[in-house]
Amino acid sequence: MTAAGVVGVLVQLAVVVGGAPLLVGLMRQVRAVLEGRAGAGIGQPWRDLRKLLKKEAIRPEGTSWVFTSGPLVLFASTLVIAAVAPFVSTASPLDGVADLFAMVSLLLLGTVALTLAGLDTGTAFGGMGSSREVTIAALAEPTILLAGFALSARVGSSNLADIVAGTLAAPAQVLSPATLLAAVAFAVVVIAEAGRLPVDNPATHLELTMIHEAMILEYAGRDLAVVELASAMRLTVLLGLSVNLFVPWGVATSSAPLALLGATAVFALKVGLLGAVLATFEVFIAKWRLFRVPELLAGSFLFGLLAVSASFFLA
Amino acid sequence: MSVLGKIIRTGRVAEPALPVPPVAGAAGAAGVRPAAPGPLAGSVQLRHIDAGSCNGCELEIGSAFGPVYDAERYGLRLVASPRHADALLVTGPVTRNMADPLRAVFDATPNPKRVVAVGDCAMNCGVFAGGHGVEGAVGDIVPVDVEIPGCPPTPEALIAALRGLTGR
Predict the structure, then answer these.
(1) Gap between the Cα atoms of B46 and B161, Å rounded
(2) Which end of chain B is more exposed for a tag (fewer CB within 10 A), N or C?
(3) Closest to A36 (Cβ–Cβ): which among B13, B72, B83?
(4) Tens-place pLDDT, residues A51-80
(5) What ipTM is given for this predicted complex?
(6) HEC profile for A182-199?
(7) Are A55 and B110 within 8 A, CB to CB?
(8) Binary contact (A40, B73; C-beta < 8 A)
(9) Cβ distance A9 to A258 under 8 Å?
């Protein structure tokens, strides 16, 4: 582990942790402008976090360590992904850990920690949100794996850094049927996992339509700040994985300072652009009925299956 | 793509932002604590509680958070849970059935917190004063920090008072 490599990991962590609330702010601002509003500015999520950290963290009577540890597990698991995934450089010293299966398991670990915390509160809405979240996670996680398989088949490795480096070495592969099908499958899953429209409305006030929000209704103060930051990081990580798996140009292949600097700027630009596109897309659609969401996810699973088949038969 | 056409034709409907109002606690009633921004500077999440209102104030609150007045640009936001809230937006005279829920919501809100009494009814029961189902004004049940007079208060008055909380 070289000093330059460690710097690369730290830069990537700083970009994801510091940039995640800005990404959420950017997406809200894009939405506000399209709705004819002025908007709170892209710094608002950071102001919210700063204030929440100063507030008292009320823990409801009767909750156990499951409730207390939920936000920490969610934050820690997302932080590991943020450190390990090939966002800025494919030459990071932690790339050996950046396995597809490990990433999906870490995503699932955070989801499960929060759903158990939602159940632990014993409230009707917490349990309802948890049950919905698990339904969606159970349908979405296999699709992430399948889409990943389709990409890993051509490089013969399930390591994310190898996949990104493979695409960089052979750019024409991005337009292959397997990659395009996997991109469609992955996009739907990212929307579902990040809790965006049409699967879940992040701005809703109606408890009956909530999924993610319903699980965190009982968190306050510091605990809520950790959940909010972790959710923003999760969105950043999912968008970052999608841009780097399908449009990897700009990722540094060494740990030279200048390469890292350029790669960081390109990564922030790509994720910001994708976030703005996603926010624009959300203006045009409404939340779907909950029972239509499995149809959407089954469709994306089919795309994933076709992508895997195509990567074996057409490659 | 009729929505796209609508977005392009309509453009921005939000009115220009007004200058920052003078320091809050403007209500100035006796025994009211001044609500200086302090720890809540720049960001105040509001939980709205209808303690028995006629829904006139609710219409104005809805309007204040609509695109034209756009209260969100000052760092205000309505949230779904008192645990997430920094300030309670209480409307209406407190009816007997809502007195206990209001106390419970106040206890469920993490410190530091503020209570905003919206409208004449919340301040002094308004036309409902002395009604058999009315327990009292909001100030009789929970400590009030900011009062916004009016029946109903205009969105401008609401936003001016709430900006005193965020200091933006």
Answers:
(1) 13
(2) N
(3) B13
(4) 999 898 888 888 899 999 999 999 999 999
(5) 0.85
(6) HHHHHHHHHHHHCCCCCC
(7) yes
(8) yes
(9) no
